[in-house]
Design a protein that fits this description.
single chain; mainly beta; five-stranded antiparallel sheet; 34 strands; binds calcium ion
C-alpha cells in the first residue's frame, strides 16, 4: 500500500485570512469525495496505540488512516450509505455509516457497519479483517436496516447496538428501531432486546443516543426519547418534522444533559428537552425556521449554553441566537458579516468548535451548496475570525491531535486536510472532550444536519 509521509506546512497567507491562524496537514486518500454525498469521516483510535485515527467511508469503501497520513487499512465492500434520507433512507447526507468501539471488552477497537442486505459486519479495528457478521430480518415496512449506533442499554458498556430503518414507501422516516445485545448477535441469536415501529425520528438523520440522566445507560433521542428499555420517556408534540437534534449540557441547573430539537412546519419551534420532559419551547418572533443549530458556550456565561440557529432563507440568512432560558439573545443578517466574495447562500455543516483553548466555543462551517471555503466565526456577532480557502465537501470537527482543542478535518477531493491551531493553548491539561460520553457518541452519529 502506498505510504506517503505527511507534509506539514503553514498555510500561505493568500490561502487564509482573519484574526486566527491554522496549520494544515494532508492525508492522501485512495478514494475521492468529489462525487456523491454518501459517507464521511469519524475519529477513533482504530489501532489502539493512543493516537486518534480517521475512518473514511465512501460508496463501496472503508479506509482507516492515521493522522500522520499513513493508510492503516482499507476494504472495498458493500457498506450501507445513502444521500437524502427522506428519499433514499438512512444514514443520510454525509452520514458516516460506520461505528467504532470496544464492543467485547478486550481493550481493542472493533469497526461495525451495515451492508446493503441488513447484515451487521464487525471488523478488527487494527487490521480491518473480518471478525463476525450476522444478517438480520428488516422490519416488515422497511426495505432493509439502514443505520446503526453502538449503545450502552444494559449498563455493560459499548455492548449493545441500535438499528434503525425507514418506511420503504413515501417520505421516508426512521420510525423502525431495534436494540440488540452485540454478544447475542455474535452468538447468532437474533432476538432483540426490544423493538419499536413508532419512533419519532428526525426527518433527515439517523437516531442519536446519549446517557441523559447519567445512570450509565443510553437513551435514544428523537422527537420521542426512549429509555434504555425502549419505553417512551418523552414525546414531543412536533407539528411537521424535526430537522436537527443536538445533545449538550445546555442548562447546568437541570440535572444531566439536554436535547435541542429544531422543528420545521408552521410553528418552527426550538425545543429544549430534558430526561423529564420539555423544559421550554420557543420560536423566533417572525416564525423563521431555525433549520440548523450550533449549541455551545458562546459567551462567558457558564450556567447556560446558547443556541444559534441559521434560519431557513436560501440566501441572505438571518441567524438568531437563543439563550438556555429560551430568550432571544442576538440576531443579525448573514450578508452583513460574511466576506464580500463569500456565497450569498451562506454556510452549512455547522459545528461548535473549541479552537482557541479558551472557555467558550466558536463555530465552524463551510460555504453552502458547493465544495468550497471553510470559516471559524463567532456565533453571537457572526464575525468571521478565520477563512480557509478550500474545496471542502465534508467538514468534521473533533479533537484528534490530543491537546483537548478541536481540529477541523476537511475532505478535499482525494485528500483529507487537518487544520490545527498553532497558537499556544492557553489552558492545557483540560480533560479531553472524548472523556464526555456524549461527545464520543455525537462525533460518531454526526451528519450534514447534526454535526
Ligand atoms: Ca491510533
Ligand atoms: Ca474489542
Ligand atoms: Ca440514562
Ligand atoms: Ca443540564
Amino acid at each position: 500500500m502506498l505510504y506517503i509521509l505527511i507534509v506539514f506546512l503553514a498555510i500561505a497567507h493568500n490561502a487564509m485570512a482573519g484574526e486566527l491562524t491554522a496549520e494544515i496537514s494532508k492525508i492522501p486518500l485512495e478514494i475521492s469525495f468529489a462525487q456523491g454525498n454518501g459517507g464521511s469521516i469519524i475519529a477513533t483510535d482504530v489501532d489502539n496505540n493512543g493516537s486518534y485515527d480517521l475512518i473514511v467511508t465512501e460508496r463501496g469503501y472503508i479506509g482507516a488512516y492515521a493522522t500522520n497520513g499513513k493508510l492503516l487499512w482499507s476494504r472495498r465492500l458493500d457498506i450501507r450509505l445513502s444521500e437524502h434520507a427522506e428519499i433514499h433512507g438512512l444514514p443520510g447526507l454525509h452520514g458516516p455509516g460506520v461505528q467504532a468501539g470496544d464492543i467485547n471488552g478486550d481493550g481493542k477497537i472493533e469497526v461495525l457497519f451495515l451492508d446493503q442486505e441488513s447484515r451487521v459486519r464487525v471488523l478488527r479495528g487494527d487490521t480491518g479483517q473480518d471478525l463476525w457478521s450476522i444478517k438480520l430480518e428488516p422490519p416488515s415496512g422497511a426495505k432493509q436496516w439502514e443505520h446503526l449506533v453502538i449503545a450502552n442499554f444494559r449498563g455493560k458498556g459499548d455492548r449493545d447496538l441500535l438499528l434503525q430503518a425507514t418506511n420503504k414507501m413515501g417520505y421516508r422516516m426512521g420510525r423502525y428501531i431495534g436494540a440488540y445485545s452485540l454478544e447475542s448477535l455474535q452468538a447468532g441469536k437474533r432476538v432483540p432486546l426490544w423493538q419499536r415501529d413508532d419512533f419519532g425520528a428526525c426527518a433527515h438523520s439517523g437516531a442519536r443516543v446519549a446517557d441523559l440522566d447519567g445512570d450509565g445507560r443510553d437513551e435514544v433521542l428523537g422527537a420521542t426519547i426512549l429509555s434504555p428499555e425502549g419505553n417512551i420517556l418523552v414525546k414531543v408534540d412536533i407539528q411537521g418534522h424535526l430537522d436537527s437534534l443536538t445533545v449538550a449540557d445546555v442548562r447546568s441547573d437541570f440535572p444531566g444533559l439536554e436535547v435541542v430539537m429544531l422543528e420545521e412546519g408552521i410553528l418552527n419551534r426550538i425545543f429544549l428537552v430534558g430526561h423529564g420532559g420539555v423544559i421550554w419551547n420557543t420560536a423566533h418572533k417572525k416564525r423563521l425556521e431555525p433549520q440548523n443549530s450550533v449549541v455551545g458556550h458562546f459567551t462567558n456565561e457558564r450556567t447556560n449554553m446558547q443556541i444559534w440557529c441559521r434560519s431557513r432563507q436560501n440566501t441572505y440568512q438571518t441567524p438568531f441566537v437563543f439563550n438556555g432560558y429560551g430568550h432571544l439573545f442576538a440576531e443579525y443578517i448573514m450578508n452583513d458579516v460574511i466576506p464580500p466574495d463569500w456565497s450569498t447562500t451562506g454556510i452549512e455543516e455547522i459545528s461548535p468548535i473549541h479552537w482557541t483553548g479558551k472557555k467558550h466555543h466558536l463555530a465552524c462551517a463551510k460555504e453552502r451548496h458547493k465544495a468550497d471555503d471553510v470559516t471559524i466565526f463567532d456565533p453571537i456577532s457572526g464575525r468571521f475570525m478565520l477563512r480557509i480557502h478550500e474545496k471542502a465537501s465534508r467538514l468534521y470537527v473533533a479533537d484528534i491531535l490530543g491537546d483537548w482543542r478541536e481540529e477541523i478535518i476537511v475532505a478535499n477531493e482525494n485528500q483529507l486536510h487537518i487544520y490545527s491551531n498553532p497558537q499556544i493553548n492557553p489552558r492545557p491539561g483540560q480533560p479531553p472532550l472524548w472523556s464526555q460520553p456524549h461527545y464520543r457518541r455525537s462525533k460518531m452519529t454526526w451528519n450534514y444536519y447534526n454535526p
